[in-house]
Design a protein that fits this description.
By secondary structure, this protein is an alpha+beta fold. The chain has helices spanning 2-32, 36-49, 52-58, 72-76; strands at 63-65, 80-84, 90-100, 103-113, 120-131, 135-141. The chain folds into 2 domains: 1-33; 36-141, Nuclear Transport Factor 2, Chain: A (Roll), CATH 3.10.450.320.
């Protein structure tokens, strides 16, 4: 009876450790190995938050989110497209919404991974201000050679 009781406790402890390890892996994977689209989203949002033209039009602080929806999961999901061009350069395109205290807009961002510097660089960053008054701002424009 004692051996079976000890074995069942050991089994429960092993399962608990397995669940804890899976949770730790999920957190580590999310924080350290962030998907490309979120890295690009964060870089573009930082660039927009630092831009005086955007701050003047929609105010500060500026927040960014994936989709216009009341659904929290939809707001966290960033629409994106990843492809490799004919030269083997990796490209990514993200579209998301921004909001400030005085207005809102939509962002169209395209970046490429520089083969030499191994860093993501803007191809284009366009902010379409929808309110309070419509405007289109070209914050970044670059054609790789």
């Amino acid at each position: 009876m004692t051996i079976s009781k000890g074995a069942s406790y050991s089994f429960i402890i092993v399962i608990g450790l397995g669940i804890a390890a899976a949770a730790a892996y999920a957190v580590f994977n999310e924080l350290v190995f962030q998907p490309k689209e979120y890295k690009i989203f964060n870089k573009a949002l930082k660039r927009i938050q630092d831009d005086a033209q955007v701050r003047v039009r929609i105010g500060s602080p500026i927040t960014g989110y994936g989709q216009e929806s009341r659904n929290r999961a939809a707001r966290q999901r960033i629409p994106h497209r990843i492809w490799t061009d004919e030269d083997g350069v990796e490209n990514i395109e993200v579209n998301f919404y921004i909001r400030g205290p005085q207005g809102a807009g939509k962002v169209f961002c395209r970046m490429f991974k520089d083969k030499v510097e191994k860093d993501w660089k803007f191809t284009s960053l366009i902010v379409h201000i929808m309110s309070p008054s419509p405007a289109q701002l070209l914050l970044e424009s670059y054609v790789p050679t």
